[in-house]
Structure formats: C-alpha cells, structure tokens
Amino acid sequence: MPAVTLKAHYDGKQILLDEPFVLPAHCDLMVTVLQDSSDRSDFFPMAIAAIARAYGENEPEYGDAK
After folding, report:
1. What is the 3-class SS of 18-53, one letter each residue?
2. pLDDT at position 39, please?
3. CA atoms of 46 and 42, how far apart (whole Å)
4. Furthest-apart CA pair in the chain: how many Å?
5. Whole-number Å distance between alpha carbons of 22 and 25
6. Model confidence over 12-64: pLDDT tens digits?
7. Which long-range contacts (CB under 8 A, 24 or more apart) does 25-31 make?
8. Distance from C-alpha of 27 to C-alpha of 44, rounded to nearest angstrom
9. What is residue 16's predicted lDDT score, i.e. its pLDDT?
10. Cβ distance 7 to 20 under 8 Å?
11. How far apart are CA 23 and CA 43, in angstroms?
C-alpha cells in the first residue's frame, strides 16, 4: 500500500479519521501530533525568520516587505 496522509483527530479516547478510508487490519501507521492550531504565536516569528533568510541581503532584487 502506498503512503497516504489522512486528517484525523483525537476525541479523548481514540484517534478518529475525519474522512472514510479503508485500512487493512494490522497495517503499519505513523502518527504525527500537531500543536493546537488556535495558538499560532510561535509560527509567525519562525515564518518571518525563514523569509528573511530566503530573501535577505543576498537577494537585492527583492525589496523590504515591511
């Protein structure tokens, strides 16, 4: 079976898929837990720093977006 990404959530007791998908019994799964999407205060400084690295002083054709 090829790898596939499925949206899911945890209801406090079990992980539930958000969309129907047939999983064979005993198939291997990899679970990634995402932080609460309602708190994005950490995301914006990281995004700004990444953009500054990508389009900083070494890319003079891009102006300052401030």
Report:
1. CCCCCCCCCCCCCCCCCCCCCCCCCHHHHHHHHHHH
2. 63
3. 7
4. 55
5. 9
6. 999 999 999 999 999 999 888 877 666 666 777 877 888 777 776 666 666 55
7. 27/1
8. 37
9. 94
10. no
11. 33
